[in-house]
């Protein structure tokens, strides 16, 4: 029997990057999946590839209504919800506070935190009753920036530290019905985009000159991760049978930052 046979999962930010790798791994493990994302083209391709086991919704994680619609779509299509995976996030192109213009600071903060923190809260809130009914679980994508400085700029690093706090508080609040955990990827070869307005030079993460080499050299394992390198950890945390006593925990998948 596959690890997630007959399980149903709602994933935000699942059309590309780490989220897409998690979707594909969950499907391989027998789950049905609903994906909320803004990328209509990639959602359509995903739906076409997996017509029976995937449902998609083009929407914004910063909207509670869109998250609630995704949950309703999930329940209508599959009859239950066992896991919510919050994954959608935007970067800040390593912008330090000194480079953020005072007149843009509040707007940049709001844009990034609305996606990286409020987006997770919306997904959790919308999923709550269905997850209580299934005695399910929540998995949030953190980052090594949730524990160490320098992996992003002041806004991104602060937002990911907030996600760590969110995991701990939700694990406390939602026990014993719902387990809440996180996965903390390190530098990964994805096209993660930066929030608008923080830098005129902003570009997708893996387009930055020297990114792959510098990221690999910074960790003991000496390589940059593929998106799929992290996916098995989400499966582990989504399985109430394989991790029944794990809550309030973040699993690091970052090439050994903690050892360094």
From TrEMBL:
Identify the stretch annotated as signal peptide in this record.
Answer: none
Q: Which SUPFAM superfamilies match?
A: NAD(P)-binding Rossmann-fold domains
One example GO MF annotation: 2,3-dihydroxy-2,3-dihydro-phenylpropionate dehydrogenase activity
Q: Which Pfam families match?
A: adh_short (PF00106)
Respond yes or no to whether keyword Oxidoreductase is given for this record.
yes
Its family? Answer: Belongs to the short-chain dehydrogenases/reductases (SDR) family.
**What's the protein here called?**
3-(Cis-5,6-dihydroxycyclohexa-1, 3-dien-1-yl)propanoate dehydrogenase
Report which gene this protein is encoded by: hcaB
């Amino acid at each position: 029997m596959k690890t997630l046979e007959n399980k149903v999962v709602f994933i935000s930010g699942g059309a590309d990057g780490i989220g897409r790798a998690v979707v594909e791994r969950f499907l391989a493990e027998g789950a049905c999946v609903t994906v909320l994302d803004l990328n209509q083209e990639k959602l359509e391709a995903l739906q076409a590839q997996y017509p029976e086991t995937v449902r998609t919704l083009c929407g914004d994680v910063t909207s509670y209504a869109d998250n609630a619609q995704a949950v309703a779509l999930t329940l209508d299509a599959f009859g239950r919800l066992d896991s919510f995976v919050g994954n959608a996030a935007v970067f800040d192109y390593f912008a330090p506070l000194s480079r953020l213009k005072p007149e843009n600071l509040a707007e940049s903060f709001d844009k990034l935190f609305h996606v990286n923190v409020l987006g997770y809260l919306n997904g959790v809130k919308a999923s709550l009753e269905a997850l209580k009914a299934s005695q399910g679980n929540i998995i949030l994508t953190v980052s090594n920036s949730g524990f160490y400085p320098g992996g992003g700029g002041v806004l991104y690093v602060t937002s990911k530290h907030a996600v760590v706090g969110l995991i701990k508080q939700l694990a406390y609040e939602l026990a014993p019905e719902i387990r809440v955990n996180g996965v903390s990827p390190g530098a990964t070869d994805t096209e993660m985009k930066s929030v608008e307005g923080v830098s005129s030079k902003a570009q997708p993460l893996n387009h930055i000159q020297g990114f792959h080499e510098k990221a690999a050299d910074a960790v003991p394992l000496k390589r940059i991760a593929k998106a799929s390198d992290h996916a098995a950890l989400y499966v582990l945390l989504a399985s109430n049978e394989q991790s029944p006593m794990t809550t309030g925990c973040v699993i690091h998948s970052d090439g050994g930052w903690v050892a360094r």
